[in-house]
Each structure stands twice: as C-alpha cells, then as structure tokens.
C-alpha cells in the first residue's frame, strides 16, 4: 500500500522551508514587529510603545540602563529561539550564532554612544528615532508596506 504520509510530510517540510526563507526582512519585518493594532501601518507612537517595552525587558537589573551583558543576553535568547526553529545543519547554526553574537557586541558599542558602558534610555530612544525615520521614507509619521524608501525603486 502506498502511504500518503511521506509526500505530505515532504510538502509540509517544503512549506516550512520556504516560509523560513521568505522570512520578512526590512520593512515587512518592521511592520510585523511594531504594528500593534494590525492596521498595516506603524505609527511613531506604536513604535515607541514596543521599543519602551523592549528596553524595560532588556534592563533586567532595572538600573535604567542596558549594559552589554543585558543587551547581548536578550539578543542571544531571541537568536537561539530563531536557530532552534531553523532547519540549517548544526555546524551552520553554530557558525551563524558566533557571527551574530559578534555583531551584537558591535551594535552595543554603536548604541552606547557616550561609551558609559550602558545604553541609557536617551541613547536607545535616539537610535529608535533614527530607525523609524529610515523606514518612514515619505516622512508622514507612519510606516506602511507601500512606503517608498529614499533611493529605493518602487516595488
Ligand atoms: Ca540594566
Ligand atoms: Ca551610554
Ligand atoms: Ca510613511
């Protein structure tokens, strides 16, 4: 008897694979992360709400700043969850993990503008304002999927 199980499993795996690879990047991911009311547009207020929550979550010792261990620790948890869901071979994952963690340390150094050893709320907010402005190509205070980013050809 021919079983339908294998083809179904293969199909499911292929769907999972293509979904993982279609994982939104850039603006699509931005909207998925910050569009609280799911109306397809991220307002500056929505963006700030999520960012503030993230900052509070990262500041595990609640001293008002995010130090390198807190920053990289929060990132590592998210990265490990992503890698656990990934279908890449183990050695590829290890490579990717090392590279991404290195990047996280670099990002911390950039975010800690005054080199105080902590990302203070003001530093985090300033970086948020920059990211939002980058996404809000037409500068109307909302980020939508149709946004034309500066210098980006219309999709
Ligand atoms: Ca802290
Ligand atoms: Ca700082
Ligand atoms: Ca806009």
Give me the secondary-structure topology.
Blueprint: H1 5-21, H2 26-34, E1 41-43, H3 44-58, E2 65-67, H4 68-85, H5 90-111, E3 118-120, H6 121-135, E4 142-144
Helix pairs in contact: 3-6, 4-5
Bound molecules: calcium ion (3 copies).
The site of one calcium ion (CA) has 7 residues, from strand 2.
The CATH homologous superfamily name of one domain equals: EF-hand
Please state roughly what percent of the residues sit in beta strands, choosing from under 5%, 5-15%, 15-25%, 25-35%, 35-45% or over 45%: 5-15%
- C-alpha geometry: globular
Helical amount: 55-70%
Structure description:
With 155 residues, this protein is mainly α. The chain has a domain at 42-141: Orthogonal Bundle (Recoverin, domain 1), CATH 1.10.238. It is 62% helix and 8% strand. The protein is built from six helices and four strands. The chain has helices at residues 5-21, 26-34, 44-58, 68-85, 90-111, 121-135, and strands at residues 41-43, 65-67, 118-120, 142-144. The longest helix has 22 residues, at 90-111. Bound molecules: calcium ion (3 copies). One calcium ion (CA) binds at residues 136, 138, 140, 142-144, 147.
């Amino acid at each position: 008897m021919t079983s339908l199980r294998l083809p179904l499993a293969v199909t499911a795996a292929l769907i999972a694979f293509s979904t993982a690879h279609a994982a939104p990047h850039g603006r699509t991911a931005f909207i998925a992360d910050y569009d609280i009311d799911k109306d397809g547009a991220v307002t500056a207020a929505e963006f700030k709400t999520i960012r503030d929550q993230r900052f509070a979550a990262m500041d595990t010792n609640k001293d008002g700043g995010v130090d390198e261990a807190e920053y990289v620790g929060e990132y590592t948890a998210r990265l490990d969850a992503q890698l656990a869901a990934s279908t890449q071979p183990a050695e590829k994952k290890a490579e990717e993990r090392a590279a991404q963690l290195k990047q996280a340390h670099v990002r911390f150094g950039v975010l800690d503008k005054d080199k105080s050893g902590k990302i203070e709320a003001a530093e985090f907010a300033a970086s948020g304002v920059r990211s939002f402005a980058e996404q809000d190509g037409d500068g109307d205070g909302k980020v939508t999927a149709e946004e034309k980013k500066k210098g980006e050809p219309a999709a």
